[in-house]
Amino acid sequence: MSDAANKTATLLAALWERNRPVVEERLATLDRAAEALGVDALDAPLRGEAICSSHKLAGSLGMYGYDEGTRVAREIEVMLAGASPCGVRMRALVAELRNAVFPAS
Q1: Contacts of residue 77, Cβ cutoff 8 Å, sequence gap at least 6
Q2: Residues 75, 93: contact at Cβ < 8 Å?
Q3: Which residues contact 89 (CB under 8 A, 6 or more apart)?
Q4: Secondary structure string (H, E, C) spanning 72-98
Q5: What pLDDT, in 10s, does the model give residues 37-76?
């Protein structure tokens, strides 16, 4: 690996560690939305927050090399923006996303 590539990898690792709490917060929002959706209680503010969180995750995870996380976050965003999202599917997707980003969690 070249010196420039090493520097880039080091910078990305440092950025990831600094932004990890934000990612965890966004995942927590998606957890809350999935739980609410599962009991047919997903209100507009939480739905909007979850759409925003999934959109931001879809846009940022690829930068850190989490391409599968980007794909799943985008799928969540599209589902939540649809007319009737499915609670069971939402819970499965959030678990898949969490596993893609934090495999040991």
Answers
A1: 51, 54, 55, 58
A2: yes
A3: 79
A4: HHHHHHHHHHCCCCCHHHHHHHHHHHH
A5: 999 999 999 999 999 999 999 999 998 889 999 999 999 9
Distance CA 1, CA 81 (A): 42
The single-letter DSSP state of residue 60 is H
State the pTM of this model.
Answer: 0.89
Calculate the dihedral angle through the C-alpha atoms of 52, 89, 16, 62, rounding to the nearest 10 degrees.
-80
Q: What is the CA radius of gyration of the chain?
A: 15
Residue 33 backbone class (left: φ over 0; alpha: ψ -120 to 50; beta: rest): alpha
Both tokens of 80, joined, read 């939540």
Question: Hey, CA dihedral for 75, 20, 68, 92, is it positive or negative?
Answer: negative
Mean predicted confidence (pLDDT) in 10-19: 90
Which residue did the predictor score with more confidence, 88 or 4?
Answer: 88
